Amino acid sequence: MVFEIVEVNQKRDLKDFIQFPYDLYRGHPVWVPPLRRMVNKEFDRERNGYFRHADAVFFMAVGETGKVLGRIAAFVNHNYLKHYDDAVGFFGSFECIDNVEVAKGLIDKSARFLKGRGLNFIRGPYNFTSQSTGFLIEGFDQPQTVLSPYNLPYYGELMEESGLKKIMDLNAYYGDVLEDYKFPERFMRHYDYLTKKYGVRVRNIDMKKVEEDVGKIIHVGNLASAGNWGFVPVDEPEIDEIVNDFRLLSDPEAVFIMEKGEEAIGYAVALPDVNIIIKKLNGRLFPFGIFRLKFGYRKLREYRLFGLGLVPEYQRKALDTLLYFHVFDGLYKKNARLEASWVLETNKRMNQALVKMNFKLVKKFRVYQADLKKWD
To answer: In the Cβ-directed half-sphere of 200, how many Cα atoms lie within 13 Å?
Structure first.
């Protein structure tokens, strides 16, 4: 196949870069076309705060007739490099036809860009949106939930053929809260004991003070995840965008903050799966999609456990069970079902906790890496 890898510099090329997944997945029964206004913002270097700490380049594979065959982004995350001393660069936003040569061409161009920046490894996929990490390798028939990626089944093979290997898997679990609600009456005695022993309380997020409460959640999340593989703290430029996402996507009755006095020490966030509505909009919020989103939102009964954590000094004290209880209790009242993702395969404590609560492993996402010495 004849093609060339071109760098995306012009607005017209960026439009083609953004359009490619809509063409590649057109009519796919699982893939959810993302809202175009959100995708446009994702790749806008002026409006997306991520680019304030990342140097990125976009590439496309273009055939003889001018048809786009694949795309990729390569980037240097300076916040990551401040946090880790391992000289890792990243790729993401990868989409490709089922052709190894095209995939190799995209990876090769990205690897050489990162190597030219003095980095030693290429890792991905990581995208410019929150928690959009990894290629799906199991569970292709499962719904694509809110703020999670989806890809075609052959992507993993394309990565292996392009010289990348697995470095980490992330798990996603699913449970029907009505069927799997496993907190017996004796748990309430345990609940009372823990709240009194540690002097904590759990409350819902206050949407009248959403900036303050989201700030608390981010602060706890940064502390709670500091030891997790690949974690990079959320910084100031990204907070405003997260607050806006909370206003748009969150259900206040499914977002919890654990406090000791005035200090936030834990959090749990379950998001309604708005992808169920968005899937019907074909990427267009206007003119009528906004009404479907607004009026269909409260009817949703599918949720995703987006995050749960405690600051280090309160971990391993069973306080996480209080957060699970509030999430389950709130969703039980809504007759809801829940996907819990993503959980690092190395996080034995959380994987075991979900299995004990009768959750089923339904998806796996994989992060790949290669030594840039391959491109000497």
So the answer is: 25
pLDDT higher for 284 or 46? 46
pTM score: 0.91
What is the rounded CA–CA span in Å between residue 278 and residue 30? 12
Encoding tokens for residue 125? 């996929």
- Identify any residues that bridge with 171 across adjacent strands, giving them in sequence order: 343, 364
Q: Which of 117, 69, 68 is nearest to 90 (CA)?
A: 117
Same domain, 123 and 182: no
Q: Are residues 298 and 208 in the same domain?
A: yes
Please give the tally of structural domains in the chain: 2
Indicate if 164 and 181 belong to the same structural domain: no
Amino acid identity for residue 259 in this structure = E
Tens digits of residue pLDDT in 163-189: 999 999 999 999 877 665 555 566 677
Are 148 and 171 in contact by the 8 Å Cβ rule? The answer is no
> Is the bond preceding residue 287 a cis peptide, omega within 30 degrees?
yes
Half-sphere exposure (Cβ direction) of 52: Cα atoms closer than 13 Å: 10
Residue 355: both structure tokens together: 């299995």
Listed in sequence order, the residues at least 6 apart from 295 whose beta carbon sits closer than 8 Å to its beta carbon are: none
Q: Binning pLDDT at 50, 70 and 90, where does residue 236 land?
A: low
Do 279 and 33 contact (CB within 8 A), yes or no? Answer: yes
Return the residue matching tokens 């005035």.
262
Q: Which of 30-34, 73-77, 143-147, 285-289 has the lowest mean pLDDT?
A: 285-289
Phi/psi of residue 290, nearest 5 degrees: -60, -35
Within this chain, do residues 119 and 231 fall inside the same structural domain, yes or no? no
